[in-house]
Amino acid sequence: EPFFPCLEVLPNACFCVLEFSDNFVIITCNPPFFKYIETSNINISDYKTIARHEIKLNLTQLMEIAKYLLNNNGTIGIVHRPERLADIIIEMKKNNIEPKKVQFVYPHPNSEANILLIEGKKNGKPGLKILKPLISHNENGDYTDEIKVFFENN
């Protein structure tokens, strides 16, 4: 039985959303990170290729769907790659989603960010906050205390 009885996961389910317009308060998404071009280095597994490359869903489609599904002032939270920040903000703005918070995640101290967390609000007022960096691992490779909090069972 599905977690949400009113929703059924279907192939291309994100394109079957007509009855849910303006009903969602929050959407969280870990979309495909990489643009797909003929010369893309893709995985032999179709599932991994679709998960990693914008073959079935791209940023433009994602933001159009979010605009349609979110209620006024609804929130979308996305996990993505830092190099796609400009693309994400452009697509958010095109769809009346105001970027509100950005946080960069670093795998280790003194390394470059490899994950971007971004939150936007549908029809939100302007004002973007850049949150302090989140470092996932200590020098010894263990999770930082800040990351361990996410895994605690309350």
Characteristics:
154 residues; alpha/beta; disordered N terminus; 25% strand
Mean pLDDT across every amino acid position: 80
Count of helical regions:
4
- Classify the beta-strand content into a percent band: 25-35%
User: What sequence of helices (H) and strands (E) makes up the elements?
Assistant: EHHEHEEEEH
Poorly predicted segments:
1-13
Shape: globular
**What structural category do the secondary elements indicate?**
alpha/beta
Distance between the termini: 26 Å
Largest sheet: 6 strands, mixed
Number of strands: 6
Global Rg: 17 Å
Helix content: 10-25%
Structural features, described:
This protein is α/β, with parallel strands linked by helices and 154 residues long. Helices cover 23% and strands 25% of the residues. Strands 1, 2, 3, 4, 5 and 6 form a 6-stranded mixed sheet that branches. The longest helix has 11 residues, at 59-69. It is globular. It starts with 23 loop residues before the first strand and ends with a helix.
Question: In a nutshell, what does this entry contain?
Answer:
Helices cover about 25% and strands about 25% of the residues. By secondary structure, it is an alpha/beta fold.
